[in-house]
């Protein structure tokens, strides 16, 4: 029998979200952090005009993904889309290509709570693969603080580099959709406390009694648990959440990936 859930457990899940969304809502950071800024004053001959933006030729050739990776082509197309997007260019004081990419990451982070559940579910599948590849310490910092983006990206990059064509397209599609939603001023789509709770309970109900007990205990003790135990709880939420039937899978995706803007009622219920 599934143990009853209460707000005590739910508050710990919310604490988990605060940290995880810092990593995963900033999806563009996974693809923009590799660019080195090249100020025009240092190299005046490396810029070419593309649409409304001056594109740094050295940045344009800087693609960290391997030639055989589908992410390489998707990343190139994404950067070009950012550099030629007049709305993004208009918001950038400098128009510098790296600044435009950084700005796209900020827009994506703010817009992820405004995109469709279907797109969030695509991102959930990719994030689930990334979490499974992290070491216990890095994984635990995602849910308990002390998160190091550089270390996280080093561990996440091989997984992204191995994305198949569908996964690569889906990753960039989510980034673009979130950016466009933010630029358009679309409203946040907020997950209700009731739906979030039902999704959390559904994970337990699809587990045996022993697993369910460990799951709820892990949610309640995230702050004091070992790195291994905290990471195990995070992996349970993502892996089993990704395998839930609808509409619970969509609820978990919005719960885990959209932070405060997508879960306002949860925060207000504390």
From TrEMBL:
<keyword id="KW-1133">Transmembrane helix</keyword>
<feature type="transmembrane region" description="Helical">
    <location>
        <begin position="12"/>
        <end position="31"/>
    </location>
</feature>
<feature type="compositionally biased region" description="Polar residues">
    <location>
        <begin position="60"/>
        <end position="69"/>
    </location>
</feature>
<feature type="region of interest" description="Disordered">
    <location>
        <begin position="45"/>
        <end position="71"/>
    </location>
</feature>
<keyword id="KW-0472">Membrane</keyword>
<keyword id="KW-0812">Transmembrane</keyword>
<protein>
    <submittedName>
        <fullName>Uncharacterized protein</fullName>
    </submittedName>
</protein>
């Amino acid at each position: 029998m599934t143990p009853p859930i209460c707000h005590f457990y739910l508050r710990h899940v919310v604490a988990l979200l605060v940290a995880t969304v810092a990593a995963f809502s900033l999806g563009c950071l996974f693809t923009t952090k590799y660019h080195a800024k090249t100020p025009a004053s240092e190299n005046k001959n490396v810029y070419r005009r593309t649409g409304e933006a001056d594109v740094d030729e050295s940045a344009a050739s800087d693609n960290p993904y391997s030639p055989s990776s589908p992410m390489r082509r998707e990343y190139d197309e994404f950067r070009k889309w950012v550099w030629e997007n007049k709305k993004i260019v208009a918001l950038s004081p400098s128009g510098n290509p790296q600044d435009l990419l950084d700005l796209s990451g900020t827009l994506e982070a703010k817009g992820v709570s405004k995109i469709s559940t279907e797109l969030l579910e695509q991102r959930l599948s990719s994030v689930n693969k990334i979490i499974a590849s992290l070491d216990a310490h890095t994984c635990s910092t995602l849910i308990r603080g002390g998160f190091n983006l550089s270390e996280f990206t080093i561990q996440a990059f091989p997984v992204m580099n191995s994305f198949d064509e569908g996964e690569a397209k889906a990753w960039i599609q989510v980034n673009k959709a979130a950016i466009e939603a933010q630029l358009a001023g679309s409203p946040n789509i907020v997950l209700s406390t009731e739906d979030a709770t039902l999704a959390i309970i559904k994970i337990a109900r699809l587990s045996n009694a022993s697993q369910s007990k460990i799951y709820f205990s892990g949610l309640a003790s995230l702050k004091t648990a070992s790195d291994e135990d905290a990471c195990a709880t995070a992996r349970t939420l993502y892996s089993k959440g990704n395998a839930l039937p609808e509409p619970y899978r969509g609820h978990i995706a919005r719960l885990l990936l959209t932070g405060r803007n997508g879960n306002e009622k949860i925060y207000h219920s504390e």
